[in-house]
């Protein structure tokens, strides 16, 4: 999961993500690296901060099993500034968004 180093995470953060998730989930993240990177690029592009990215991997890792287009389509239905502020404050607000 070293590819996450380019997204504001350090070795300690990556270790925390690995320890906080089931090995099969981590395996799927690494298998779907291309998709995960596309989602990460989109999240960074719209203004999601590094702490929120880490928290998404810790508490809402399922979001990275969606495609960038799925996430973008859902986010486009909402007020983008509100979503970004909410995610940067508490990533668990993702639960309120209907995918």
What's the topology here?
Layout (H helix, E strand, L loop, with lengths): L10 H10 L2 H9 L1 H14 L3 H10 L8 H9 L3 H10 L10
Helix pairs in contact: 1-4
Radius of gyration: 13 Å
* Number of contiguous helices: 6
- The secondary structure category is mainly alpha
| SS elements, strand count | 0
**Helix share bin:** 55-70%
Number of domain units: 1
Q: Kindly estimate the percentage of residues that lie in beta strands according to DSSP.
A: under 5%
Mean pLDDT: 92
- What is the ordering of alpha helices and beta strands? HHHHHH
Q: What sort of overall outline do the alpha carbons produce when their principal axes are compared? A: globular
**Poorly predicted regions:** none
Biggest sheet layout = none
Cα(first) to Cα(last) distance is 26 Å
Describe the model:
This protein has 99 residues and is mostly helical. It has one domain (2-96). The chain has six helices and no strands. α1 (11-20) runs parallel beside α4. The radius of gyration is 13 Å and the shape is globular.
Structure summarized in a few sentences:
With 99 residues, the chain is mainly α. It has helices at 11-20, 23-31, 33-46, 50-59, 68-76, 80-89.
């Amino acid at each position: 999961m070293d590819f996450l180093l380019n997204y504001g995470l350090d070795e300690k953060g990556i270790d925390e993500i690995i320890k906080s998730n089931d090995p099969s989930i981590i395996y799927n993240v690494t298998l779907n690296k291309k998709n995960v990177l596309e989602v990460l690029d989109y999240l960074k592009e719209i203004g999601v901060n590094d702490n929120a990215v880490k928290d998404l991997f810790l508490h809402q890792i399922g979001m990275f099993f969606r495609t960038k287009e799925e996430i973008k389509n859902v986010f486009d239905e909402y007020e983008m500034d509100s979503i970004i502020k909410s995610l940067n404050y508490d990533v668990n607000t993702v639960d309120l968004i209907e995918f």
